[in-house]
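Work Package 4 report. The design task specified in the project plan requires that, given a folded chain encoded as structure tokens, an amino acid be chosen for each position. We show below one input record used in the internal validation round.
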């Protein structure tokens, strides 16, 4: 029989689907694979990447390590049966928050899905309690977020921001916990900037962060159940609308990028841990990428610039070895190193998929397959 240390190292490098099968082989393997230590080490080795989808019948997974298409962890969520179809509003540590598409005469349902086990649970309906102001129900759902960290707890939470019918700019937060399997109201209704969009927030530091098109900000601390704001955006450009091209988290940090005008040069800013200010973290020049892929250059019919550059920033991934930008350019996905300013093509996609995957950073979801236990769907 192989030494236990060697078995441990072999198991760490197996795909999640194989590990789930091995958990059924013996009590020893079940105990080993289910341990917090093993799940922690497996998380470190898991391939970082993003999932892209226009519909849940067409899911594309791009690995930042350059894995090929044969390594796709899953390509659809067909195990969730909903007559209206479903979409993915949010993801967290290997779990997906999904909701049914709008269909006349059908109530919208929300699901927590584990694509590694092909299991899911249906969330109960939201609170039916009246809001605090007018006695009428808060009905319109503006944003829903999944909060899950298996290194801290086997339970997850779902935060929902709903518009109150009493006022155009009044909102109410509701929180669901898998520990209690129930929704509850969090605090009183609050006022928000008129142009705040609550469905494109970023979960970082146990809080959800939003930036409006005019640069106003809000954040909601999940643990403290408290609202706050962020420092002003770093750019001094005097535009009526902010040109926010990326807003996301990586390596325990919150990042954003604004790009004004038709340029291949921009900066990546990082929020200080104490929320004191945004600081410049990276200077980026995509000129070498443009030279290699001239199809990125497009004619510009707006403003004073003659050309624009066709690319989307899907995610930023930081670790000890490197910091990478995952870019979507016409027909390709490119990994750009922010430290040594080199790049490589990760994957090419078919013409049919390329049409379906015209996405920006708010429609791409960072994803790693985790070994989820406890209250997994």
């Amino acid at each position: 029989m192989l030494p236990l240390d060697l078995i441990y190292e072999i198991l760490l490098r197996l795909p999640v689907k194989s590990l789930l099968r091995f958990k059924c082989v013996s009590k020893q393997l079940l105990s080993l694979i289910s341990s917090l230590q093993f799940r922690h080490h497996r998380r470190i080795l898991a391939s970082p990447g993003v999932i892209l989808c226009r519909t849940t019948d067409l899911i594309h997974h791009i690995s930042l390590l350059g894995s090929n298409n044969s390594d796709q962890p899953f390509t659809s969520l067909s195990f969730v049966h909903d007559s209206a179809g479903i979409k993915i509003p949010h993801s967290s540590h290997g779990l997906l928050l999904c909701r049914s598409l709008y269909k006349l005469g059908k109530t919208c349902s929300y699901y927590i899905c584990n694509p590694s086990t092909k299991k899911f649970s249906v969330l109960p309906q939201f609170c039916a309690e009246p809001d605090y102001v007018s006695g009428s129900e808060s009905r319109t759902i503006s944003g829903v977020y999944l909060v899950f960290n298996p290194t801290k707890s086997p339970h997850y939470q779902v935060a929902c921001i709903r518009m109150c019918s009493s006022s155009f700019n009044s909102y109410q937060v509701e929180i669901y916990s898998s520990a209690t399997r129930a929704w509850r109201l969090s605090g009183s209704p609050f006022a928000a900037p008129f142009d705040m969009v609550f469905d494109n927030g970023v979960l970082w530091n146990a809080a959800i962060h939003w930036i409006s098109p005019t640069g106003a900000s809000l954040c909601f601390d999940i643990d403290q159940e408290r609202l706050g704001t962020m420092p002003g955006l770093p750019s001094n450009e005097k535009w009526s609308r902010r040109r926010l091209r990326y807003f996301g988290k990586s390596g325990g940090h919150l990042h954003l990028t604004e790009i004004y005008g038709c340029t291949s040069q921009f900066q990546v800013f990082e929020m200080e841990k104490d929320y004191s200010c945004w600081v410049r973290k990276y200077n980026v020049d995509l000129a070498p990428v443009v030279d290699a892929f001239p199809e990125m250059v497009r004619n510009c019919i707006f403003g004073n610039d003659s050309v624009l550059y066709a690319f989307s920033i899907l995610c930023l991934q930081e670790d000890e070895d490197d910091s990478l930008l995952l870019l979507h350019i016409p027909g390709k996905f490119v990994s750009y190193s922010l430290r040594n300013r080199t790049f490589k093509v990760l994957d090419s996609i078919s013409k049919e998929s390329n049409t379906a995957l015209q996405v920006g950073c708010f429609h791409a979801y960072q994803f790693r397959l985790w070994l989820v236990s406890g209250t997994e769907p």
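Residues 129-138 have pLDDT under 50 and may be disordered. Validation will be extended to a larger panel in the next phase.
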